[in-house]
Amino acid sequence: MKEMNNPKTWLAAALILVGVLSRLVELPVNFAAIGGIALFSGVYLKNRNLAFLVPLSALFITDLIIGLHADLIAVYFSFVLIVALGMVLSRKPGIITTAAASVTGSVLFFIITNFSVWFTGTMYPKTLEGLGTCYVMAIPFFGNTLAGDLLFTGVLFGTYELVTRTVLKPAPQQA
Question: Measured on CA atoms in the order 67, 148, 88, 162, is the torsion positive or negative?
């Protein structure tokens, strides 16, 4: 029961809820909070198991609702890498490095998941030209991924920093 009083537990639960809602509400395809949540979890959740569990739980819950698919492993793997990217970012966080990490996460997701679509699917021939066509056809979806990742990363990181620096800041030491 001690865990329920821990602010990190509530933070993790809130992040999972935001991730689930962002995948279930009517938003443009690939415009979701999961990328921002994965990056945020890697930076701020010091319990490494929890950092990976938060975005993967949100994915799993929503995949059970909206349906499992052939590229599930590639999608989950890309978010594992984004959490790890957040762990690296936690050593030197800042607005520029966070934005760069968010863009990098979007690119990782794009490369990994679309390679999987080409490799496991039947839509494109198993040639370099087929792979190129697969990536070209996915470009419109990349814009939504990038926009969602940047927006949710900004909101999550900005809100966290604002709250911790104002509302949760330690009381001044008395002399």
Answer: negative
Q: How is residue 67 written in tokens?
A: 């349906």
Angstrom distance (rounded) from CA 137 to CA 104:
20
pTM tops 0.85, yes or no: yes
> CA of 129: how far to CAs of 30, 37, 100, 124, in Å?
25, 34, 30, 9
CB count in 10 Å sphere of residue 22 = 20
Q: In whole angstroms, give the CA distance from residue 95 to residue 74.
A: 28
Q: Which domains are present in the chain?
A: 2-154 (1.10.1760)
**What would the pLDDT profile of 59-108 be if each residue is shown by its tens digit?**
999 999 999 999 999 999 999 999 999 999 999 889 999 999 999 999 99
